[in-house]
Specification:
Number of strands: 23
Bound molecules: thymidine-5'-diphosphate, magnesium ion
Shape: globular
Distance between the termini: 79 Å
CATH class of the largest domain: Alpha Beta
Number of domains: 3
């Protein structure tokens, strides 16, 4: 008699639970558990620890380590220089790349541009849109060429057949959450489906040595929807970021088996699709007004690429009896809370009954601690209602004791500040001597930085 055994799996972190509960004990998220069939009883005899396991028909024998070639397959340029930059050269044969981003950010646009520039046949599985819609977008982008094959299907079988008939040298699946495996009963986009379909496609790409790009949706918190297991299955995870209402788009490598994960590519969304931005700092500072309180400029570092970003803070007195509001855009919320506490405890800046809105301008998201000092100064500047000197750039990490700590590659930060016309830089005490034409103001703690910037 067949017995169906099920488990409840968290769609955020993949933790298994024997029973359904409202909150996942693995990640603390609510309402993320979905039911999944784990065995049907038919397989019960083979699940014994001693039962033999059949090898797959295309299994490879073991190879000696010293006889193993070091070649991983060469990266093939996509033809989009900015994208090749973040991929350390391009797409490697048989590699699987997951491109994650919020809806409407430009994933399909970018991949259609890649399909257009790619040298060879491309199979584009457009599971979210009809072929007509994709064709319309391609016309708008001027991205039409004969050897791009559109497949508006959701099934794994159809995709495998289309690979046989079109013999592509690049496969794009847009998006993995829409694909379904007929042998899995759960709905498309569920944990079980995403895992099964991704596993199947990854195996297919590896066996045939064809680079595969999967599009993945992200939740509003910025995590890839579906279990973490998707990230483990692929070789590269690219995250497509930006604010839909701004034109700037950042592509970061979150995981990359064939190169550095520190690289960053910057695009601008224009009427003709995405174009690489050679000088993002210039673009980010374009609308800056330097005489307003609550603005500080920081040379941040994304991999080896410096980026000048304006940090803004707006503060106002919170109504009595109402907890103060704190919102952060493009900045870590807990970092903001910590810096507000440091300002209150160590620097005498009254932040406790103050509403604070802080943001990194231009829709960029900055995770590196080098922005701490700039954020602290922007908040203080708004509270005392006095602007920072217009020719001043600021960087440094702030510790819990209000000390200003050194961050990576100060030289590159100085050079970028200088290039954009800043004359003075507030930086940690142990900073090396800067290049010519930059006046360096070394500070050991936030209080000193506030005085140096004329805020106290
Ligand atoms: P899209 O690639 O469909 O996003 P995703 O696949 O990530 O959901 O991009 C959609 C947005 O991009 C849409 O709001 C229109 C805009 N867009 C442009 O601004 N210029 C263009 O040339 C194209 C094709 C789209
Ligand atoms: Mg899309």
């Amino acid at each position: 008699m067949s017995k169906v055994k099920t488990s409840h799996v968290c769609s955020e972190c993949g933790t298994h639970h024997p029973k359904w509960t409202g909150q996942c004990t693995g990640c603390g998220e609510w309402n993320t558990l979905t039911e999944e069939v784990i065995s049907t009883g038919l397989a019960a005899d083979t699940s014994s620890p001693n039962a033999p396991r059949p090898a797959s028909s295309d299994a490879r024998p073991p190879v000696a380590l010293n006889d193993t070639s070091t070649e991983t397959g060469s990266a093939r340029a996509t033809g989009i220089a900015e994208l090749d930059h973040v991929l350390s050269g391009g797409l490697v044969e048989g590699s699987v790349t997951l491109l994650g981003g919020e809806p409407g950010i430009g994933k399909s646009t970018l991949l259609l541009q890649v399909a257009h520039k790619w040298d060879g046949p491309v199979l584009y599985v457009c599971a979210e849109e009809s072929a007509q819609q994709v064709r319309q977008r391609a016309e708008r982008l001027g991205a039409i060429r004969p050897d791009v094959w559109l497949l508006a299907e959701h099934g794994l079988g159809e995709i495998a057949d289309a690979i046989d008939s079109t013999q592509p040298s690049l496969i794009v699946v847009d998006s993995i959450q829409m694909i379904s495996d007929p042998v899995v009963t759960s709905a498309p986009g569920s944990v079980a489906q995403v895992r099964a379909t991704a596993q199947f496609l990854v195996n297919l790409a590896k066996r045939r040595s064809i680079p595969l790009v999967l599009v993945g949706h992200v939740t509003k918190e910025g995590d890839l929807a579906g279990p973490r297991v998707l990230e483990h299955l692929v070789d590269t995870v690219l995250s497509f970021e930006g604010d839909r209402h701004h034109s700037l788009r950042l592509v970061r490598a979150v995981k990359h088996r064939f190169g550095s994960t520190n690289e960053l590519s910057v695009f601008e969304m224009t009427g003709d699709g995405l174009t690489g931005v050679a000088d993002p700092s210039q673009l980010l500072l374009a609308d800056r007004k330097d005489q307003i309180p609550g603005s500080a400029v920081v040379p941040t570092l994304e991999g080896r690429r410096p980026l000048i970003v304006e940090i803004q803070a707006l503060t106002s007195v919170a109504p009595p009896g109402v907890p103060a509001r704190r919102t952060a855009q493009g900045i870590d919320q807990s970092r903001l809370a910590m810096l507000l506490a440091v300002l209150a405890r160590h620097c005498g800046v009254p932040t406790s009954a103050t509403d604070v809105y802080a943001s990194a301008v231009g829709g960029v998201r900055i995770a590196e601690p080098g922005i701490d000092l700039a954020l602290s100064l922007a908040i203080a500047s708004s509270i005392v209602d006095r602007p920072l000197p217009p020719d001043l750039a600021v960087f440094g990490e702030v510790g819990l004791g209000s000390e200003v700590r050194q961050v990576a590659q100060p030289d590159r930060r100085f050079a970028e500040a200088h290039r954009l016309g800043f004359k003075r830089v507030l930086a940690p005490l142990r900073s090396p001597d800067p290049i010519d034409n930059i006046e360096l103001i070394r500070v050991s703690d936030v209080g000193e930085a506030l005085r140096a910037a004329g805020l106290t």
